[in-house]
Amino acid sequence: MTAESLHRLHRVWRLGADIDTDALAPGHAMKHGIDVIAKHCLEAVRPDFARGVRPGDVIVAGPNFGIGSSREQAAAVLVQLGVAAVIAPSYSGLYFRNAFNVGLLLLTCAEAESLNDGERIALDTTVPAVVSPGGARLACESVPGFLMDMVRAGGLMNQLRQRGGSPDPQKASNV
Amino acid sequence: MTFNAPDRAPAQTLAQKLIARASGRAQVAVGEIVTCGVDMAMFHDSSGPRRLQPMLEELGAQIWDRSRVVLVMDHYVPERDDDSRRIVRIARDWAREQQLPHVYDSQGICHVVVPQHGHIRPGMLCVGGDSHSPTGGAFGAYMFGIGSTEMLGVMVTGEIWLRVPETIRMWWDGALSAGVTAKDMMLHMIGRFGMNGGRYQAVEFAGPAVAALSMQERMTLSNMSAELGAQAGLIAPDATTAAFLAQAGAPPVDMAPWFTDEGAALTHHRFDAATLEPYVAAPHSPANAHGVSRYLGTHVDVAYIGACTGAKLDDLRAAAQVLRGHKVAAGIRLIVAPASLHDQERAREEGVLQVLMDAGAELFPTACGACSGYGDPMGDGITVISTTARNFKGRMGSPTAQVYLGSPYTVAAAALRGCVTDPREVLA
Questions:
Q1: Partner-chain contact A31 B156, CB within 8 Å
Q2: The model's pTM
Q3: Minimal CB count within 10 Å: which of A74, B32, B312, B319?
Q4: Alpha-carbon distance B83 to B220, whole Å?
Q5: What is the ipTM of this complex?
Q6: A156 to chain B: nearest residue by CA?
Q7: Residue B314: per-residue pLDDT
Q8: C-alpha to C-alpha distance for B144 and B163, rounded to whole angstroms
Q9: For residue B404, which phi and psi values (nearest 5 degrees)?
Q10: Are B47 and A71 inside 8 Å of each other by CB?
Q11: Which of A31, A45, A79, A174 should be substituted to probe chain B, the one whose Cβ sees the most B Cβ atoms within 10 Å?
């Protein structure tokens, strides 16, 4: 995703602070498959999101994105909907782990809230940074290498499929 | 004759000691990423078999150690529709196929049932397929929640990575007044620090007011560490822990090593339990918490006493103390869903259940129920006061429901008056 990303403009869906897992994957839909849960994604806080989001769009949110439940469907729905990345000043630690495990890129960006709804941005995932069409850059915290590998593979399950066997847990030396 | 002084290990926090043991090291430093062996992995019908089975099958992988796996059916029981029946059937069939030795089906909520059977003990490193897994920290175990894909990794390897956390110590002096509980302590802390105030570090609860708490009350503190955004919520084990575990039939454990050393590096916050008033969190965040006085008189339609963090035996006893000899207000529903069959039976034997029923409570099954919105969702536009852990918008079913959180004393007092009430007025 690295090389092409800089040339690709992603449309911003701007959300507020404290977006919780129950908003991302509502409890009433949890008995269904990911395709059905995705239709209800964010319905309580941004009712136009699930219908309007297009592959390649990004979510830009306030602090504490993903607080709440361990349900990883709250990250998997965004993969299902084609969301390219979430950009926020901070995340729930549990959500952070889940997101990378299902192949969703999270970028921690202190200045995320300076971005606007509907704006187009590029992502430089090597640094990483958010890049505006005018060339202005917002720095993001670096992502440990083994987590970046996981996103590139499309999540832990894809990594394991590619290895064709049982998982080799991420080692400290990879970080 | 002189001896060289033995090399003194640097002062370590309880979290560091637990992680060092699990990673086979003498000590670990904050910020290091280490791989730990898992002593116990718990999951339930929602996060467990229905998600793990297909992944394990596709990989042709086996469970690393069945004796360390505990499965609890609590989210979709009792089954209300075809989808719930399908999910629970997958869990039951899989448990049978895999010959899992530790399965608790419709016995209550995992965070209550698993410790009640002695599975979580001081010194352990445990993971749970549920965000409220820090509850295990009340027993001096490093326990945290993970998603299903990470659980797959644990199932196959018995290992998990973690970053050694800083410790944020919540030191509580004094003693709680009558009608004030661990839930009030927790809502106060979440209100002060926010839902990510724990920064995915280890929170440790200590001080005389914590030492005086029963195990079930300690479990409420550790449980809602999740609402503080901590990875783990630890309490150093003591005689109270040992007594609980002995009653649960757990093998004896050496508890001596499991405490934070004097002088260990940590962030310290101090509180006074004696001046704490009952706390209420208003919609739609547990961090929207203030003293009950701010919300006095707010009308409620439903009072819900349920969930892992609000319907244990101690919680039912507290509610009964308020409701004894009274009836709930006209038009108000009081729903009681005990956290486990064990606690429900004890409450029955003690007459606590009868007090609640006489007051007009409806008894619901010992499951997660309305807390997660998986069963018995709340309707549109109603106001609920609940002993549960979260009041996110839409969590209990309808995005237009207004959910307040409070202790079982506070929820019972609201049921009695039909509005948010300071339970100390009723108890006086």
A1: no
A2: 0.95
A3: B32
A4: 31
A5: 0.93
A6: B149
A7: 98
A8: 12
A9: -105, 145
A10: yes
A11: A31
